[in-house]
TrEMBL record:
The lineage of its organism: unclassified sequences, metagenomes, ecological metagenomes. Residues 9-78 form the Transcription elongation factor GreA/GreB N-terminal domain. Necessary for efficient RNA polymerase transcription elongation past template-encoded arresting sites. The arresting sites in DNA have the property of trapping a certain fraction of elongating RNA polymerases that pass through, resulting in locked ternary complexes. Cleavage of the nascent transcript by cleavage factors such as GreA or GreB allows the resumption of elongation from the new 3'terminus. GreA releases sequences of 2 to 3 nucleotides. One of its GO terms (biological process) is regulation of DNA-templated transcription elongation. It holds the Pfam family GreA_GreB_N. Belongs to the GreA/GreB family. This is Transcription elongation factor GreA.
Amino acid sequence: MSETNDATWLTQEAYDRLADELEYLLTIARADIAKRIQEAREEGDLKENGGYHAAKEEQGKIESRINRLEEILATAQVGEAPKAHGVVQQGLVISVELNGSEKKFLLGSAEISDEDIEVYSPDSPIGSAIIGKKIGEQLDVYLPNGKTIQVKILDVTNS
C-alpha cells in the first residue's frame, strides 16, 4: 500500500466475500493441502515426486492469498462509495483521456469489482497520479517502462 492510500475501500458485500474466502483458506484449503503434502511424502523420494512439488507450490499460492486477504481486510474501509464531487478518489468510476483515447475505469482494489469495468489500483502509476485531481485537470504520468503518457480527467462518477 502506498503512504497516501493505506486503506482499501470495499463494499460490505465485497468485504464479506473476502472474509468468507479467507475463512475457507484458513480452514478447509490449508487442511486439504497439508493432507496432500503428507500423502505425497509417503510416496518416497521427494526429488522426483511430482505430486509433492505440485502440492508445495499450491501451498505457497494458498499462503500468499491468505496473506493478501489478511492485509486487505485489516486495512479495509467498509461502506458505500464516496460521493463524487468532481475529485478523483478510491471507489469512484473515472473517465479519462489517455494519449487521445477515452478510457473509463473503477479506481480501487480488484476485489471490489463485480461489474464489467476495468479496475485500476490506486497504487498503479496512473491511479496514484490522478488521486485528488479534479475534472478538467491534465497531467503527465511517468510509467515504469520510462514512457510518459498524458492523462486528462474527464469525469468522476459513482457508477
